[in-house]
Amino acid sequence: MNILVTGGAGFIGSNLVHALSGEHDVRVIDNLDGGKRKNLEGVEHTFHREDICDSIIRGVDVIYHLACRKMIDSIKQPEIDLKINTMGTLNVLENARKLDASVVFTSTGSIYGNPTVFPTSEDYPPHPESPYGVSKWAGEEYCKLYHKLYGLNVVIARPFSVYGPRQQSIGVIPKFIKQTLEAKPMTIEGTGVQSRAFTYVDDFVEALILLNEKGVSGKAYNIASDCSYPILMLHKMIADLLGDYGIETIPRKKGDLDFSYPSTEKIKALGWKQKTPLDIGIRKTSEWLKNHVNNV
């Protein structure tokens, strides 16, 4: 198939390109605002440096849409977040409609905000706590609308705390690993009791590919690990592996969430399962960072 990955030079996008290349003709659109060309070294692909809001897409069968602004940027510049995350998604959907191409849209688990029901299923009402969450929720609604109005084959993935090789140090796991490798204390925001359902990137990529093959159009699927881990436990696991240089407490960012523990029954019903436990994923991420610590 002819496959397009938007945001394909970024962390998750590049891992997806590596998984797809060889079996498919893979194209990448990325403006390199956050992505890096070196993430795609050694993998066959066609690259287009473009802004997803302006791209004209031709000749593809499937679009994996991952291009977006991250949450930390959305707090600082919500208007740019709205343009890229929502208007960019609308542009992808318009292109897909004209091409009759399938779309897998990567949303976010943060659209739930701070839920009160656990495990949190996909029908829990969204209450986002950040402009990022709002913009992704709006993107989801456009996906559902295009399915309803035009019969567009579009499936929504809601990832939770994805980590692994090629991730820049803004993620908590690579940040902690990099700080430890530099013999610095880990910076923990707030008390560290907030927890996350950390998901290894290879597992998430497998879920995206599965959603294109078996996902129900117009529906959303949580993609997450089976357990939710407090940030303090994450500190201990990395310290036990690489050394303990203490903790430095800093204020929490606006929009930071307290607790995530999603239901993954829907994606498991399609045949997906978590393959990489957190300790193994941390070890793999640590090995990658040791060899690339000066390049992230």
Percent helix range: 25-40%
Total number of beta strands:
13
Q: Enumerate the spans where pLDDT stays under 50 for 5 or more consecutive residues.
A: none
Query: Which fold name corresponds to the CATH topology?
Result: Rossmann fold
CATH class: Alpha Beta
Domain tally: 1
CATH superfamily: NAD(P)-binding Rossmann-like Domain
Percentage of residues in DSSP E strands: 15-25%
**Structural class, from secondary structure content?**
alpha/beta
Rg on CA atoms, Å: 18 Å
How would you characterize this protein structure?
It is a single chain. With 296 residues, this protein is α/β, with parallel strands linked by helices. It has one domain (2-166, 199-225, 261-276): 3-Layer(aba) Sandwich (Rossmann fold). Helices cover 39% and strands 16% of the residues. It has helices at residues 11-20, 71-76, 78-99, 131-150, 172-181, 201-214, 231-242, 265-269, 278-292, and strands spanning 2-6, 25-29, 46-48, 62-65, 102-106, 154-159, 162-163, 186-189, 195-196, 199-200, 220-223, 229-230, 247-250. The chain has a seven-stranded parallel beta sheet with strand order 3-2-1-4-5-6-11, sandwiched between helices. The mean pLDDT is 95.
